[in-house]
Design goal:
single chain; 294 residues; alpha/beta; D-Maltodextrin-Binding Protein, domain 2; 2 domains; five-stranded mixed β-sheet; three-stranded antiparallel β-sheet; 14 helices; 10 strands; 45% helix; globular
Length: 294
């Protein structure tokens, strides 16, 4: 994605919170969807404001790809979700796991033991997976829960991200736990295109995330996960030792986490996904508004 540099360098040059800039360079990565771009830029800009040099490797691909980059030291940190760590990286079922602290403690311990990677303090963002339909679909088919969706899914087309088909907290779990099987599954990596297809009646159901701004904007209906297939998905930085052992870096990253929640992320994502602003510009303006940058 392109980055508007105008004015940003000048803002950062006068906004270091920790005195002289550190010579250490940290590489921030992200997966391939809008929330990741925004949060990774929040991390990067906060680190720069704390005096670090930052290299960016955004839009690198799926969970598996970015996780491997972190393990191999291609990147030093990226934003991850506790539920994704549990289900995708640990390959645990996640079904019935509703305690956010338990899920966080589980993935934190596993990552430290198996990968020598550290989960820092989680943010207030719980970007859980959701299944979304148009209001008229919910009304005409009497859909309130995923169990309701199971009754009619064989006549419906799903639109979701590129990982959804293979994930346990995706089509695999929907079939196993609910018996949900769709007539067709169309891959839409871009949120904008996914929800446009739903509103244009090209698809019937969207596999989305709780922070998708299109849900509120379109007055869409989120179906209740009545059998707790989807675990909590609290957002946190996952980092290598080079970051975890640096208190200044940890402070800069956890400062971001303390400032964001689901409502905030919906607003920030909307600026990028619906209003065509660049993620770095959005990150800088947000951190300026919260006093992190001057």
């Amino acid at each position: 994605m392109g980055i508007r540099e105008t004015g940003i360098a000048a803002v950062l040059a006068v906004s270091f919170l920790g005195g002289a800039a550190s010579a250490q360079t940290l590489t921030v990565g992200s997966k391939n969807f809008v929330e990741q771009y925004v949060v990774a830029e929040l991390y990067a800009v906060s680190l720069e404001a704390a005096g670090f040099k930052v290299s960016r490797k955004m839009n690198q691909g799926s969970t598996q790809i970015v996780h491997e980059q972190l393990r191999k030291g291609v990147i030093d940190l990226y934003p991850e979700y506790t539920g994704t760590g549990l289900v995708v990286v640990m390959n645990a079922s996640g079904v019935g796991e509703t305690d956010p602290q338990k899920v966080y403690a589980t993935v934190k311990a596993h990552y430290e033991k198996e990968f020598k990677l550290t989960w820092l303090k989680p943010s207030g963002v719980n970007n859980g997976r959701v299944m979304v339909v148009r209001p008229e679909t919910a009304q005409s088919m009497n859909l309130k829960t995923l169990s309701d969706l199971a009754r009619v899914s064989s006549r419906m087309t799903l639109g979701a991200g590129s990982e959804f088909g293979e994930r346990r907290d995706g089509l695999v779990g929907l079939k196993e736990i609910y018996g949900i099987e769709f007539a067709d599954y169309r891959r839409f990596p871009a949120l904008r295109v996914r929800y446009k297809a739903l509103l244009n009646k090209e698809i019937d159901v969207v596999g989305g995330f709780a922070t998708d701004p299109q849900i509120a904007a379109g007055e869409l209906v989120t179906l209740k996960d009545d059998k707790a297939l989807f675990p909590p998905y609290f957002l946190a930085p996952v980092v290598r030792t080079i970051v975890a052992s640096n208190p200044k870096a940890v402070e800069a990253l956890e400062r971001v986490g303390a400032l964001i929640d689901n409502t905030t992320m919906q607003e920030l994502i909307e600026q990028v996904a619906l209003n065509d602003k660049e993620p770095r510009h959005v990150a800088v303006e947000f951190l300026k508004s919260r006093g992190v940058l001057r």
